[in-house]
Amino acid sequence: MPKDHGIGASPKRREDVRFLTGAGQYTDDINVYGQTYCYFLRSDVAHGKINRIDTSDAEKMPGVVRIFTGKDFEGVGGLPCGWQVTDRFGQPMKEPGHPVLAQGKVRHVGDPIAAVVADSLEEARNAAEAIVLDIEELPAAVDMKAALGDGAPLVHDDIGSNLCYDWGFVEDNKGAVDEAIKNAAHVTTLELVNQRLVANPMEPRVAVGDYSRANDESTLYTTSQNPHVIRLLMGAFVLGIPEHKLRVVAPDVGGGFGTKIFHYAEEAFVTFAARKINRPVKWTASRSEAFMSDAHGRDHVTKIELALDKDNNFVAIRTETLANMGAYLSTFAPSVPTWLHGTLMAGNYKTPNIYVNVKAVFTNTVPVDAYRGAGRPEATFQLERVIDKAARELGVDPIALRRQNFVTEFPYQTPVAVVYDTGDYNATMNKLEEMADIKGFAARRKASEAKGKLRGFGVNCYIEACGIAPSNLVGQLGARAGLYESATVRVNATGTISVYTGSHSHGQGHETAFPQVVAEMLGIDESMIDIVHGDTSKIPMGMGTYGSRSLAVGGSAMVRATEKIINKAKKIASHLLEASEADIELKDGKFSVAGTDKSVAWGDVTLAAYVPHNYPLEDLEPGLEETAFYDPSNFTYPAGAYACEVELDPETGKVTIERFAAADDFGNIVNPMIVSGQVHGGLAQGIGQALLESCAYDENGQLLSASYMDYAMPRADDVPFYSVDHSCATPCTHNPLGVKGCGEAGAIGSPPAVINAVIDALQSGGHKVEHINMPASPQRVWAAMHG
Amino acid sequence: MTEVTMTVNGKSVTKSVKGNTLMTEFLREELRLTGTHVGCDTSQCGACVIHVNGEAIKACTMFAAEAQGSEVTTIEGMANADGSLGVIQQAFQDHHGLQCGFCTPGMVMSAAALLKDNPKPTEHEIRDYLEGNICRCTGYHNIVKAIMAASGQDVSGIAAE
């Protein structure tokens, strides 16, 4: 019988009521009295020298309050990067400046040149038209390989090349890996592209800056996954506003998927401008603007070699990747192709020798940073594709080849730094085989063939490192901040509770799931507990939500704070019950003396904590509020096995997803309904990457896909009902909830399954196609068939 | 400026608007009905779907002046008279048909229009109808399921949760 409350139950989401009635409050729903509107004039060329910006006519236009250019930001900090990678030779990465408004040069289409602040958006937009620009267009670095070549245009002249870093991992293992590959019985090689994507949360980014002259305080309302991180970065590194004079609020946020982690120029601009003009300033991105200013994702070009011995055991993996950084280093960009990618290259397999080389490249394109999965989808795609290719070359079953090489003993020290704490990859594969009805596939293929279609089956495994992150470890890996999380549990006098969490919910349902945990611990009703998030003036500190960390890290902080509450409440109860503290038990919201019928209710204890007549003042302070910070000792390692079945129309090359099954091990589950929803969404994004989505630039650096007319988002008729399961749970051993995180798995695990299925379909039709780059669009598939 | 009069969620409103004021701007800024969302600038995403005289319309494709004399319903007008969730809204909550909530108003309004014309749509018909509504969070699974449930169909055979 499924539970109806507490951990493991699926109560309906409480936040849904406001979202379903139009009562949600997103950033664009916020207007501040006296507000002005901001319009950014952005570069329409990929690379150019700014000779002159003449705003004199524009300034005279109706409604214009002030026009800002790069000149106004001389002496103001640039946007900082939060992660420093050290290269193969022990040198720090190249870290060019990232001005709020362009200084001297524009470096990508969309780079902001000037900002018009006016009484209305229409007036701001009209005035921007009247700004006279003299920009000398320069040749652009677009293709990564060409950008590294001699004589390539330089994105940043002061660096002297377009190479950000050349990273080797683990550099000391390179010789052993080369040797193992040389001596291997079989080596499978695959070159592939993990294409550039745009995260595209449905809510475009918005920023509203406000300034109070009375107390010299700035407030920024912004569409962020981590308001405290923005406060820290913007306050300390860009604008020089101390934290106690800066409030950052991220109210209801309409999806993030990574792209709302980063600190953006527009946030700094509206905060800066509001102080300068002493009026609130609002900026709302149009979708086209989002395409050219939100950090993009992926964009790797990779060669992977998998070496096997004569018994088909994996003996070595060697990869070479070019990773696009775009024109500037976004907040976490350098970590994505390195520490979130190289450390996962072992996958679910015991491969003793692994070497990963990544060259990060500056190009005249929008900056690239973390997008759902961030580095782990890139690792999973190349590994699971090369394994499938190896299975075909060797004529062995792809599932059997995977099983043969699975890690089966835990903890497992990989050759790429991380230690997997728990897992059972055979269990998820067993579950998957059952869910995917492999036995029935032959009949389904026959039925497709009878209709003149091809049918393919693809499978893959994945593992990811989540619960970001153990602060000590990431510090060694280059993170410039530890990644703790905090929680404050405030018990009110009448027994209701407000939980202040540094995690941020932008669709994940924390307001429902987090109370399930606290209610379970205290034995009280979930409706007595509210979650407060997204406002730096309320929550002590927070590193926010990304890397599937909210429950594993933020939830653990909440557990620790609740444990402190229980300890203190027991002391109060022992006083009220005139019993020894050691004898007090908390069950079903009641404190009782063990072995007696004496008890006191939760509400009596909480009342006594605040307004007592009879209280042990000499031993205990009144009040019942506790804060805890939690730092995980390791990453968590969600893992699983995915299967995709496609039908392919050989007449048109169109691929249709017929079935998709996902067997995940997320450790313990707090709310199964929400977890399944997270997987569904991830699968659609992974299927979108595999079949539909591509952020395209032409050779001059013009962005070709800057609207939903050109960028193919997955729609309801592009995807099937999914079959998902998370019953194969091996709880995480190092956090109090035993949870692993579920937010990114679907997007990480699904692209290789789709492409493996497409290749299987093509091969079943006699087409000798070994690989197809994503998205496997009808045109690409058709071309591959007739290539 | 033009004076427009229309009925919005059962209440008559009269306002002066500029000729180029979009219906989305009118609802969000003039009436402060902020449940109608703007997710794109090319009429692709469907976050702004409302009903005008019973038809589903993308409010970003319509000028406020064009709604003169119309009956307009927005997401704020979809709850029952007692404030409880309407059938479709309730089905979205019951079946976890929303996550971040941004596309949700448009989804609910589109679903309502579909069910008015086709009270028992098939899975295929629902997916086809939602072509003009993009959701980035749910992968559509639970949206389709919720709409089937709202139309009184048995969804217990569709993968749990």
TrEMBL record, chain A:
Q: Which organism is it from?
A: Thetidibacter halocola
Keyword Oxidoreductase carried by entry: yes
PANTHER family associated with the record: ALDEHYDE OXIDASE 1-RELATED (PTHR11908:SF132), XANTHINE DEHYDROGENASE (PTHR11908)
Chain ranges of the Aldehyde oxidase/xanthine dehydrogenase a/b hammerhead domain: 21-139
Q: Which GO terms describe its molecular function?
A: iron ion binding; oxidoreductase activity
What are the UniProt keywords, alphabetically? Molybdenum, Oxidoreductase
Protein name, entry field: Xanthine dehydrogenase family protein molybdopterin-binding subunit
| SUPFAM superfamilies (UniProt xref) | CO dehydrogenase molybdoprotein N-domain-like, Molybdenum cofactor-binding domain
Q: Which Pfam families match?
A: Ald_Xan_dh_C (PF01315), MoCoBD_1 (PF02738), MoCoBD_2 (PF20256)
From TrEMBL, chain B:
Every copy of the 2Fe-2S ferredoxin-type domain together lies at 2-78
Q: Which UniProt keywords apply?
A: 2Fe-2S, Iron, Iron-sulfur, Metal-binding, Oxidoreductase
Q: Its Gene Ontology molecular function terms? A: 2 iron, 2 sulfur cluster binding; metal ion binding; oxidoreductase activity
Record InterPro entries: 2Fe-2S-bd, 2Fe-2S-bd_dom_sf, 2Fe-2S_ferredoxin-like_sf, 2Fe-2S_ferredoxin-type, Beta-grasp_dom_sf, Diverse_Oxidoreductases
Q: Which Gene3D superfamilies match?
A: 3.10.20.30, [2Fe-2S]-binding domain
**Known PANTHER family for this protein?**
OXIDOREDUCTASE WITH IRON-SULFUR SUBUNIT
Name this polypeptide is given: (2Fe-2S)-binding protein
Q: Which organism is it from?
A: Thetidibacter halocola
Taxonomic classification, please? Bacteria, Pseudomonadati, Pseudomonadota, Alphaproteobacteria, Rhodobacterales
